[in-house]
Design brief:
The complex is a heterodimer of chains A (180) and B (311). Chain A has 4 helices and 8 strands, in the order βαβαββαβββαβ. Chain A has 180 residues and is an alpha/beta fold. The chains are: A alpha/beta (180), B alpha/beta (311). The A-B interface holds A 69, 71-73, 77-89, 94, 118-119, 121-124 and B 1-4, 25-26, 29, 32-33, 36-38, 40-43, 71, 301-302, 304-307, 309.
């Protein structure tokens, strides 16, 4: 099994900083914007960005933040041997009329994001939804979904796997490709 | 986390404690779903479920139907009265006829113990037992366990007293299996005639004095006297039963600690439980009903994920 590094810890923190400023360009003080992390792997990224944005933006009110689990909305239910085990959704506010930034770590086929768009409807009709991903595996989409903000773009083949590890959950910040 | 070890939910006896953990954990997520503004998820949209009720039911039937609809499954309902059963059709024939209309899962309540097991051996569908005679009522036990865990935070070493008509109760048997597998202690309490002779071989304590049972327990699960199943007299009069085993506010207030009161319903107010107890803040009877939908959603979801994908 071969590993190839895409981003090391310092590159990753630079990338996060750039993504923050790109978000601020479009959302100013985040007064009408909500940040939503996708369970399970997108929430660490989303929490990092939210904390960093809170420091940079310095508004009186903190940025509204939620976490979304899409398990029950997936289209591959009963395609696996094991059941899909859900994580927790925590959105205790309405998305009606808000700008929503969905955040996930890796964009691959686009199917998770499609489920996310469905799952979000239970919380109201947002006026606009944007997508932020750390890694975009372009040329591998099954659905017509494109991100608005991208950490880095990578060309991969199907057999390869892109893994994002975080200090909080895995002990170290890094992004790498595994060749099976 | 792994899948359930069974393909049908026939009784708690067949489940492992890991299965029960998985169901309770999944139910947590569904409880969150049914408290959202839009209480529906599309997981089971390609699944059809038949609810076969050969015996009367309000709560269980409604609860299963709501659980199925909130998972987006297609639902057909059947009740024995006004059907071909009264014309002499057998259980297998009735079910196979329904299954040839392409039904994937069957939820069944039947007055005969073992009916669900029998069906699971003869028809091609995932079977969920919604009560078979005086045998088992697995989803009730699961929702009771879920409700206790929600109220007290754990099931380990919790003391539960099941009071009333143990002899005719499927809820009692399923509850005993479920609570013991999760590490709780169980006591049954009732008149000698309504306690099965060999119940202590299941490892439960037996008590015939209500006050002593209540002093011992953290949670009391009050059962209804099932007059419709009693072909002989088990006690002289209902009034005498109520005097001995009816739970009243006076008894509850005389205890040294605050215990939690449960009831699987339907309640006979003024017989096994008085109105002021049933409506008190110690009672979690209505929480049980709410949790029932979440737990049944979890059971259906986990069983459905084991069905072969039909593509």
């Amino acid at each position: 099994m071969q590993q190839r590094e895409l981003l090391n810890s310092s590159q990753l923190s630079l990338t996060l900083q750039r993504l923050c400023y790109q978000l601020i360009e479009n959302h100013n003080d985040f007064s009408n914007t909500i940040i939503i992390g996708m369970q399970p792997r997108g929430v660490v990224l989303a929490r990092r960005l939210k904390n960093q944005l809170d420091l940079i933006v310095k508004t009186d009110n903190v940025i509204t933040y939620g976490e979304l689990d899409v398990t029950f909305f997936r289209d591959d239910f009963r395609h696996h041997d094991k059941p899909l085990v859900p994580s927790k959704t925590s959105i205790d506010f309405s998305l009606e009329g808000k700008n929503v930034v969905l955040i996930d770590d890796v964009l691959f086929t686009g199917r998770t994001i499609r489920s996310g768009l469905d799952a979000m409807l239970a919380y109201g009709r947002p006026s606009k939804v944007e997508l932020l991903v750390l890694v975009d595996r372009r040329f591998q989409r099954d659905l017509p979904i494109q991100p608005n903000y991208v950490g880095c773009v990578v060309d991969t083949i199907n057999e390869e796997k892109v893994k994002v590890e975080w200090k909080e959950t895995d002990g170290e910040d890094k992004v790498f490709i595994i060749n099976k | 986390m792994s899948a359930l070890s069974v393909n049908h939910l026939l009784g708690i006896k067949d489940l492992t404690s890991a299965d029960i953990e998985l169901i309770l954990h999944t139910a947590d997520n569904f409880k969150d779903v049914i408290n959202r503004p839009i209480k529906k998820v599309p997981s089971l949209r390609d699944i059809t479920i038949a609810n076969l009720f050969f015996e009367n039911s309000t709560r269980t039937k409604l609860s299963f139907e709501l659980a199925e609809k909130r998972l987006s499954a297609d639902v057909v309902n059947f009740s024995a009265s006004g059907s071909s059963v009264s014309k002499g059709e057998t259980l297998i024939d009735t079910t196979n006829n329904i299954l040839s209309m392409k039904v994937d899962m069957v939820v069944m309540r039947h007055p005969n113990p073992g009916a669900a097991l029998f069906l699971s051996k003869h028809v091609k569908a995932s079977i969920v037992n919604a009560g078979d005679g005086a045998h088992e009522h697995p989803t009730q036990a699961l929702l009771d366990a879920y409700s206790i865990k929600e109220k007290l935070g754990t099931l380990k070493d919790v003391r539960v007293a099941i009071v009333g008509d143990i002899l005719h109760s499927r809820v009692a048997l399923s509850n005993i299996f479920c609570l013991q597998k999760m590490g709780a202690e169980v006591m049954v309490c009732g008149p000698t005639t309504l306690i099965p002779k060999y119940i202590s071989t299941l490892g439960v304590k037996v008590e015939h004095n209500l006050k002593k049972a209540l002093e011992w327990c953290d949670v009391a699960n009050m059962l209804r006297i099932q007059l419709e199943r009693q072909d002989i007299k088990y006690f002289p009069t209902l009034r005498e039963y109520t005097m001995q085993f009816g739970l009243t506010k006076t008894i509850l207030d005389s205890l040294s600690k605050k215990i939690t009161i449960m009831h699987p319903g339907p309640i006979n107010r003024g017989i096994e439980i008085s109105s002021d107890v049933a409506d008190s803040d110690q009672s979690i009877i209505l929480n049980q009903v709410e949790n029932g939908v979440a737990v049944r959603m979890a059971v259906l979801y986990l069983l459905a994920s084991k069905l072969q994908q039909s593509v």
